[in-house]
Amino acid sequence: MRVVVPFSTDRPKTRLAEVLTPDERREFAEAMLADVLDALDAVDRDLDVTVLATDSVDVDAPVVVDDRPLTTAVNDCLDSVPTAVVMADLAIATPDALSDLLDSAADLAIAAGLGGGTNAFLARNSTFHVDYHGASYRDHLEIADEAELSVREVDSRLLAVDIDEPEDLAEVLLHGDGAALDWLVDAGFELDVGGGRVEVVRE
């Protein structure tokens, strides 16, 4: 099974600019990518994993450089089935959660992000195509419906959490166990549980 992991090297994670410098955002993004690749590597099945990056990146997986918009680049990867697409910022995704998606027999198995985006999917029918903008999850369900594809909506918090905003860092500190967690700890981030709420602070 082919698995594509899109990764932007151009100004990654701009919504974290409030708490991370440009160099830190790049390092943290690469740490999350490493965690996603490690989780996929631990899935108990034969996967052909490729990183679809906007520029060269040093990772333990084959890299295809494509600087076109995400929708165009991913659609060109869907010419063979089955093909899965897993976003590179799913820092708390586990092998079991990914296996649940990848084991689906539906024409389209799809996992939503908390904000309405599409965090991961598996397409077993070549008529499916992506359209990444805004609430893409809803759009992708409509595309599948119009093509009369069978759909399985994968309800997984571990796949729903993508790390975009400063408050999302708490999810990594609470549930992460890989490179992204190590990077945050080394950078001085920790959880403050005072006052009846959990907040991310930096030493």
Largest sheet: 7 strands, mixed
Kindly give the count of domains: 1
Number of helices: 7
The strand line-up of the biggest sheet is: 3-2-1-4-6-5-7
Q: Radius of gyration in whole Å, from Cα?
A: 17 Å
CATH topology descriptor: Spore Coat Polysaccharide Biosynthesis Protein SpsA, Chain A
Report helical residue fraction: 25-40%
Number of strands: 9
Q: Measure the end-to-end span.
A: 43 Å
State the fourth-level CATH superfamily.
Answer: Spore Coat Polysaccharide Biosynthesis Protein SpsA, Chain A
Overview of this protein structure:
With 203 residues, this protein is of the alpha/beta class. It has a single domain, classed as Spore Coat Polysaccharide Biosynthesis Protein SpsA, Chain A (Alpha-Beta Complex). Helix content is 32%, strand content 20%. The protein has 7 helices and 9 strands, in the order E-H-E-E-H-E-H-E-E-H-E-H-H-H-E-E. The chain has helices at residues 22-41, 70-75, 95-102, 136-146, 157-160, 169-175, 179-186; strands spanning 2-7, 48-53, 63-65, 83-86, 108-112, 118-123, 151-153, 189-192, 199-202. The strands form 2 sheets. A 7-stranded mixed beta sheet has the order 3-2-1-4-6-5-7, with helices on both faces. Helix 1 links the parallel strand 1 (2-7) and strand 2. Helix 1 runs antiparallel to helix 7 (179-186).
